[in-house]
Automatic annotation (TrEMBL):
Protein's UniProt name: Phosphonoacetaldehyde hydrolase
Molecular functions (GO terms): phosphonoacetaldehyde hydrolase activity
InterPro entries per UniProt: HAD-like_hydrolase_sf, HAD-like_sf, HAD_2, HAD_sf, PGP-like_dom2, Phosphonoacetald_hydro
Pfam families per UniProt: HAD_2
Residues annotated as catalytic: 10, 51
Keywords, comma-separated and alphabetical: Hydrolase, Magnesium, Metal-binding, Schiff base
Database matches in PANTHER family: PHOSPHOGLYCOLATE PHOSPHATASE, PHOSPHONOACETALDEHYDE HYDROLASE
Organism of provenance: Phocaeicola intestinalis
Binding of Mg(2+), residues: 10, 12, 184
The keyword Magnesium is assigned to this record: yes
Family assignment from sequence similarity: Belongs to the HAD-like hydrolase superfamily. PhnX family.
Cofactor binding description: Binds 1 Mg(2+) ion per subunit.
Main function: Involved in phosphonate degradation.
Amino acid sequence: MKKIECVILDWAGTAVDYGCFAPVSAFIESFRTLGLEVSAAETRAHMGLTKIEEIRALFRIDHVNQAFREKYGRDYNENDIQSCYTEFQRLLFSTLRNYSGPIAHVVETIDTLRGMGILIGSTTGYTQEMMDIVIPSAAEQGYKVDNCVTSDNLPAGRPAPYMIYKNMCDLAIPSRFSVLKYGDTISDIKEGVNAGVWSVGVILGSNELGLTEEEVQNMPEEELKARMLEVRYRMYAAGAHYVVDSIKELPALINAINTRMNNE
């Protein structure tokens, strides 16, 4: 019988840090130290990459590299990227523990999945040093995974598939058809697609929606529905097999996928 044996979750915006705000603020402030402005929307457009690769992507934005040239009289180089990344890390490490609380319904849903015999893996755009803060803090608040893989010592981070493959090796999952990747960014979706596993996006709490819990609760229903629909379209356009509103839908979706696989 074919079935999902492993769910691999992202961290910020998927399992912890509702709205994925910790890295957004650190990106914005680290560029400001160089006298440069990047918007929250620009940082979110590249979220899910490793953080150094996101900084490279932000430097490549036309108005950013033009502003750098006007301010410093030259083009930016790798030293500037590394300097910005150093400041980003300093800012992120100072707040990271405060953004490690599980998103609503994550803990109980993971318990349900474990009751279904499913292993819980994870991938992230954070480095291992960053996860050394997030993992124990999240565990103190009830969220634990069976395996966490960062891109440290791998050929590349997302959207490349290597972190998913490493999870499969670590957890002894022999078939990609038994793996479901679950995440909140376009890079997450593409990571799953590139690995050839089931790729599922989540909307509420996601980087793509980019709202706080309070903003979601107070937003007029029709406006919220419209924004959620835009996210759903983007995720499907990126190759998602399914998109759910929240993690509460995941156990039922997995049962449906299991049925689909065994009826094909």
